[in-house]
Design goal:
- By secondary structure, the chain is mostly helical.
- It has a domain of about 45 residues.
- Helix content is about 75%, strand content about 0%.
- It contains 2 helices and no strands.
- The N and C termini lie far apart (about 55 Å).
Length: about 70
């Protein structure tokens, strides 16, 4: 599907969440990788939509000011 590579992440989590993350990493590392990928994908989509919405708003303002 995609070309992949390993990365090392260091995150600070609440103790209970950290313990659960460690358990998931030990039992099903692929699942944890999918969770991280999902989160990063959501963030990317959100940024894209926010930038798109911002540029659309800028265009609307420019068009409104251009009308006589």
């Amino acid at each position: 599907m995609w070309e992949t590579r390993s990365v090392q992440l260091s995150v600070r989590l609440p103790q209970e969440v950290a313990a659960e993350a460690e358990q998931v990493q030990a039992n099903d590392p692929e699942f944890l990788s999918r969770i991280v990928l999902y989160g990063l994908t959501r963030r990317s989509v959100y940024r894209h939509l926010r930038e798109s919405d911002s540029s659309t708003a800028d265009e609307s303002l420019s068009a409104a000011h251009a009308q006589p």
